[in-house]
Write a structure and sequence with these properties.
The chain is 50% helix and 11% strand. It is an alpha/beta fold. The strands form two sheets. A six-stranded parallel β-sheet has the order 5-4-1-6-7-8, with helices on both faces. A two-stranded antiparallel sheet has the order 2-3. The chain has twelve helices and eight strands.
Length: 242
């Protein structure tokens, strides 16, 4: 539901249906809840991970295409693909976690995310986080925003088993199993095609959040049917205002 379609009765009804059936809400972290690297460049982190590998003489572990992605998770996956479960992967994952922990201090809250989270928790829905970021980072950010109680203890994030990163549905399935929830009674909120693919694999309905047109196109092209560009309209629907 974009700005142009927020007054579209059919689009609103699709959003209402998603919310009406959601007893459990699974949130991606970086995007729907905050912009983790708003003040701490993800591109720089990715480049520094590559530089660290090269300083150890590991020039061939990351292809030129992977290097150009400027995505720390792409670098991490690339190394794990070539050296799965190795000490090298463990060390690289910890380096990324430390960068994420540093970034959490300057992360920018997504507009309307905090009040939506508090409202959803207040009306009795159960909330969890299913993310490719470190759970240590999520806990630090939530504590800083006073949101820990809305999710605790259901925070499921990156481990050293990197093949479980989304689009693999592992973290979603882990959350559902821990909460005793059926996929059809849940809702995943995410902002990337990998979030959508993970939700689809887990059988969980999906609500896309797109902060700009490029993000929306990527979600639509992946197959997402309901996409909002503001979480305010989600809260309005939840409260029966629209």
């Amino acid at each position: 539901m974009t700005a142009e379609t927020e007054n579209d009765p059919e689009a609103l009804e699709d959003l209402r249906e998603l919310i009406r059936h959601a007893r459990v809400v699974l949130w991606d972290f970086d995007g729907p809840i905050c912009r983790l690297f708003a003040g701490h460049s993800a591109e720089r982190v990715a480049a520094e991970l590559v530089e660290w590998l090269e300083s150890r003489g590991l020039h061939g572990l990351v292809t030129e295409e992977e290097r150009k992605s400027l995505d720390p998770h792409v670098v991490l996956r690339a190394v794990d693909l070539r050296h799965p479960g190795s000490d090298l992967v463990a060390e690289l994952e910890e380096r990324l976690t430390q960068e994420e922990l540093h970034a959490a201090t300057s992360a920018m809250p997504t507009m309307y995310a905090d009040p939506l989270i508090r409202t959803w928790a207040a009306v009795g829905s159960r909330l969890a986080i299913a993310t490719n970021n470190s759970p240590r980072v999520v806990r630090k950010y939530l504590a800083g925003r006073g949101l820990t109680a809305c999710f605790h203890p259901h925070i499921y994030g990156r481990t050293q088993n990197l093949h479980h990163l989304k689009p693999h549905p592992h973290c979603l399935n882990h959350a559902l199993n821990a909460m005793g929830a059926a996929p059809s009674a849940a809702l995943m909120i995410g902002d990337t095609p990998s979030d959508y693919e993970a939700a689809r694999s887990a059988g969980v309905p999906f609500l896309g959040y797109a902060r700009n047109g490029r993000k929306e196109r990527l979600l639509r092209d992946a197959g997402a049917l309901v996409v909002v560009n503001s979480l305010d309209v989600v809260r309005d629907v939840l409260l029966g205002r629209v």
